[in-house]
């Protein structure tokens, strides 16, 4: 069994979900060409889903799509992966993303509002344009996508939505714009979970800790080790993986989560619960992490896996 890696990407898939779980399903993943979104896209494709990835930059989309297609082709699996350029801040582009997807594939089962981000700044120094850019990207973009997915398709056919929050539970110093926007996303998720339950549309969210490394996420801060800095305050003493976010997203989309709506799952190694100033985390060993490569190595020859 090969355990080799290419550009830091695991070459094996070892999803904890059964193959074919999402056969005949159609999903949109915003920001699906990089980082966490790319992990979600790969797992959905591996599980049989047709995926449309959408973000602003055409080159990022085409490079990411090529990498994902090549990766899946190595397993003899054909990726039903499509690319649509869309800035989630632009209402007309969001409307068109949903209508293009429904026209082309005849349906829309899943929406994953992963695309987003922010910049580091003390709140006193944030200009209005910067504040608006971050709030429109993370909160307004999520609202627009949810609304259009619901009105154009899910209202009459059901569906499942997963939104993206962050570790903003105690406020978010130096990312006040994004903390406020994501708190809004968590609240919107609860509201839509209630309003749309009657249409069989479930709306949930995931809240990764500030600890999920990817080259693109780190590049946004010009600091490759920004995520490692968080370890000291994470009870599990390590950063997280994109697969640890993706598996939570896949669970929330799956029939196993049929009675869950309005919920936000934290994926942060306990970071957001560590608040007691009198208790310093001991200098302990990191806990076991889950990634496709590590699971593949551990499981073989059992489990749902494919040699890629
Ligand atoms: C840290 C660990 C946790 C990690 C969590 C993650 O989410 S990891 C995921 C990480 N991945 C991502 O975050 C990816 C996505 N993020 C992004 O694309 C950007 O961060 C964005 C959300 C601001 C959108 O930007 P855009 O393309 O729409 O617009 P634009 O570039 O034209 O800026 C508009 C205005 O914003 C302001 N401003 C912008 N940057 C800075 C700065 N560094 N400094 C100060 N201010 C800044 C500025 O006012 C600017 O206008 P101006 O005054 O110059 O005329
Ligand atoms: N990494 C972490 O530790 C954490 C990440 N998150 C959130 O998870 C999500 C994924 O981040 P991650 O993978 O880490 O980082 P990346 O920087 O790799 O991903 C951000 C993605 O969002 C897309 N995007 C940004 N703005 C827009 C927009 N206006 N319209 C459409 N797409 C957009 C980008 O594509 P493009 O540039 O082509 O538009 C990119 O693919 C983000 O919302 C992030 O804030 C939350 C908590 C922690």
TrEMBL record:
Its main location: other. Its EC number is 1.3.1.38. One of its GO terms (cellular component) is peroxisome. Pathway: Lipid metabolism. The keyword Lipid metabolism applies. InterPro entries: NAD(P)-bd_dom_sf, Peroxisomal_t2-enoyl-CoA_red, SDR_fam. It catalyses: (2E)-hexenoyl-CoA + NADPH + H(+) = hexanoyl-CoA + NADP(+); (2E)-octenoyl-CoA + NADPH + H(+) = octanoyl-CoA + NADP(+); (2E)-decenoyl-CoA + NADPH + H(+) = decanoyl-CoA + NADP(+); a (2E)-enoyl-CoA + NADPH + H(+) = a 2,3-saturated acyl-CoA + NADP(+). GO terms for biological process: fatty acid biosynthetic process; phytol metabolic process. It is found in: Peroxisome. GO terms for molecular function: trans-2-enoyl-CoA reductase (NADPH) activity. Keywords: Fatty acid biosynthesis, Fatty acid metabolism, Lipid biosynthesis, Lipid metabolism, NADP, Oxidoreductase, Peroxisome, Phosphoprotein. It comes from the Eukaryota. Participates in chain elongation of fatty acids. Catalyzes the reduction of trans-2-enoyl-CoAs of varying chain lengths from 6:1 to 16:1, having maximum activity with 10:1 CoA. Has no 2,4-dienoyl-CoA reductase activity. Interacts with PEX5, probably required to target it into peroxisomes. This is Peroxisomal trans-2-enoyl-CoA reductase. It comes from Elysia chlorotica. The lineage of its organism: Eukaryota, Metazoa, Spiralia, Lophotrochozoa, Mollusca.
């Amino acid at each position: 069994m090969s355990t080799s890696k290419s550009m830091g990407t695991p070459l094996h898939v070892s999803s904890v979900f059964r193959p074919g779980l999402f056969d005949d399903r159609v999903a949109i993943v915003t920001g699906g060409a990089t980082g966490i979104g790319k992990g979600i896209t790969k797992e959905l494709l591996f599980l049989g889903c047709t995926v449309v990835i959408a973000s602003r930059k055409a080159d990022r989309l085409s490079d990411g799509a090529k990498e994902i297609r090549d990766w899946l082709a190595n397993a003899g699996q054909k990726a039903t992966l499509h690319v649509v350029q869309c800035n989630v801040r632009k209402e007309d582009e969001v409307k068109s993303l949903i209508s293009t997807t429904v026209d082309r594939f005849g349906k829309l089962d899943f929406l994953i509002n992963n695309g987003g981000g922010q910049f580091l700044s003390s709140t006193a120094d944030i200009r209005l344009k910067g504040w608006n850019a971050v709030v429109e990207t993370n909160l307004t973009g999520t609202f627009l996508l949810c609304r259009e997915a619901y009105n154009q398709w899910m209202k009459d056919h059901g569906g499942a939505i997963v939104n993206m929050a962050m570790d903003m539970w105690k406020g978010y110093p130096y990312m006040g714009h994004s903390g406020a926007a994501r708190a809004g996303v968590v609240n919107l998720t609860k509201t839509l979970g209630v309003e749309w339950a009657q249409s069989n549309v479930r709306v949930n969210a995931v809240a990764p800790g500030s600890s999920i490394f990817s080259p693109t996420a780190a590049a946004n801060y010009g600091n490759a080790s920004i995520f490692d800095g968080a370890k000291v305050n994470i009870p599990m003493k390590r950063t997280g993986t994109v697969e640890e976010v993706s598996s939570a997203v896949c669970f929330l989309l799956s029939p196993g989560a049929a009675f869950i709506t309005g919920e936000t799952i934290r994926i942060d190694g306990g970071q957001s619960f560590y608040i007691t100033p009198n208790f310093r985390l001991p200098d302990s060993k990191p806990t076991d992490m889950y990634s496709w490569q590590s699971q593949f190595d551990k499981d073989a020859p059992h489990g749902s896996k494919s040699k890629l």
